[in-house]
Design brief:
Layout: H1 2-23, H2 27-47, H3 51-75, H4 80-85, H5 91-110, H6 131-139, H7 144-165, H8 177-181, H9 185-188
Length: 200
């Protein structure tokens, strides 16, 4: 009973935060709603005894990806008005995504007719069962190459984010290290000799 209550409570928070991601006008507020979505998703993972996936979701997505995303959003100085003007051009892509999600939900509902009971909770695991050990065994043997490819893609994304934040913009003051090192005292200080004046 308590598990069902927690499931519906976390699901309500997850749906509300996901709705806030797509309706927030401020990009930073949208990113914070996405952080809340990740936290509640991790809580749902805990309910089905997938502790390792829940911890990875919090540490990787909330602790690294979302922090990077927030820094990129704040440092890119996005012009919200220009972004809103181009929303109608990509409306078809949004509707296509909605149709795809609805098809996935209907597919899950139709599974019940195939003899699979999706309403039953998974069986409790043994006390000595390790999610981390099982995932590590599969990840570093069968899926080692996709895992390394994902790491390279994340590295490329980080480098691209840094390059975007360091690009030249109008009115941006950039420190020129080479010019500062090559500066001479004669270029900075000017000594003027004047005759002494006396008051009468």
């Amino acid at each position: 009973m308590l598990v069902q209550f927690l499931f519906y409570a976390f699901s309500a928070v997850l749906i509300a935060s996901a709705f806030g991601v797509i309706t927030s006008r401020n990009p930073v507020h949208s990113a914070l709603c996405l952080v809340l979505s990740f936290f509640t998703s991790a809580a749902l993972w805990l309910l089905i005894e997938a502790e390792f996936l829940a911890i990875v979701l919090v540490l990787v997505y909330v602790g690294a990806v979302m922090v990077l995303f927030l820094f990129v959003v704040m440092m890119l100085d996005i012009n919200v008005e220009e972004v809103r003007k181009g929303v109608t051009r990509y409306a078809w892509l949004g509707w296509l995504t909605v149709v795809a999600v609805l098809c996935e939900i209907l597919g899950v509902v139709m599974v019940r007719r195939l003899g699979v009971d999706v309403t039953q909770a998974p069986k409790p695991l043994a006390a000595d069962y390790s999610n981390t050990g099982e995932l590590g065994q599969v990840l570093y043997t069968k899926y080692v190459y996709p895992f390394e490819l994902a790491a390279v893609l994340l590295l490329v994304a980080i480098v691209a984010a840094i390059v975007l934040t360091m690009r030249k913009r109008k009115g941006l003051k950039v420190q020129d290290i080479a010019a500062q090192v090559a500066t001479r005292a004669e270029d900075r200080v000017r000594i003027i000799k004047m005759k002494a004046e006396t008051r009468e």
